Amino acid sequence: MSRPHLIGLTGSIGMGKSTAARMFRDAGIPVWDADAAVHELYKNGGAAVAPIRALRPEAVGPDGVDRQKLNAWIAENPDALALIEGVVHPMVAKNRQSFIDAAEADLVVLDIPLLFETGGEDRVDTVVVVSAPEEVQRARVLDRPGMTEARLDHILSKQLPDDEKRGRADVVVPTVTMDETRDHITALIERLRHA
């Protein structure tokens, strides 16, 4: 089988990316999840634990890499993020390629929250951005346990603004209602399969 058509799925926090990914899965499309891949690398026994311990021993506990401690290190040390990425990015890339190679499918979705921020759009054939109006986004995120306006604003400050993401997308999937989202995803799958 030739290489599958790669769909890069992204969107800012609260825009419905997880729901869209589930809809692709429900349609029989394999979905690789970047966050889940990192979680596997960071958990106790994960491939990133020893290299992260070598960089920052206090960032590793009995359960593996402590992301809060990593984030604190990043906040205090301007070189920390590049050091961490130097360890983790090659491992994530290997995991992603293994998933693509094993997929045996015509379409594969790569669910990557920071697709644009990491230059990932160059590694996919079609970029899909999920989007909803700002008031819908904020309401969804603020409904999460422990979320505050200040925390949400901090997270958004680290992400490319939604209007920029939409401007760089090949396809924008609106996520205000489940039916609307499903209709757009179904139509996209059909279009890509018959392109």
TrEMBL record:
Pathway: Cofactor biosynthesis; coenzyme A biosynthesis; CoA from (R)-pantothenate: step 5/5. It is found in: Cytoplasm. CDD domains: DPCK (cd02022). It comes from Palleronia abyssalis. The keyword Cytoplasm applies. GO terms for biological process: coenzyme A biosynthetic process. Belongs to the CoaE family. Its main location: cytoplasm. ATP binds at G14, M15, G16, K17, S18, T19. The keyword Zinc-finger does not apply. This is Dephospho-CoA kinase. Catalyzes the phosphorylation of the 3'-hydroxyl group of dephosphocoenzyme A to form coenzyme A. Its EC number is 2.7.1.24. It catalyses: 3'-dephospho-CoA + ATP = ADP + CoA + H(+). HAMAP family: Dephospho_CoA_kinase. Keywords: ATP-binding, Coenzyme A biosynthesis, Cytoplasm, Kinase, Nucleotide-binding, Transferase. GO terms for molecular function: ATP binding; dephospho-CoA kinase activity. One of its GO terms (cellular component) is cytoplasm. InterPro entries: Depp_CoAkinase, P-loop_NTPase.
